Amino acid sequence: MGQRADGTVEVAAHQVVRNRSGAVLADGVVRHVHTSAGDLVRRTDVEV
């Protein structure tokens, strides 16, 4: 987790995506980038 130069906060998250049968379609790390407005999260983007 860390703050970027533009003031957003980046968090690394392990993500597993499965189909309806339970087979793994993707397994890896994605980045959640949070933009804040005061004490509230205004926006969250997911970067692969």
Give a verbal description of the structure.
This protein has 48 residues and is mainly β. The chain has one domain. The chain contains no helices and four strands. The mean pLDDT is 96.
Radius of gyration: 14 Å
Number of helices: 0
Mean pLDDT, all residues: 96
The termini sit apart by: 15 Å
- Shape, per Cα inertia axes: elongated
Summary keywords:
single chain; elongated; 48 residues; 71% strand
Question: In brief, what are we looking at here?
Answer:
The chain is an all-beta fold and about 50 residues long.
Please describe the topology of this protein:
Elements: E1 2-3, E2 9-18, E3 24-37, E4 40-47
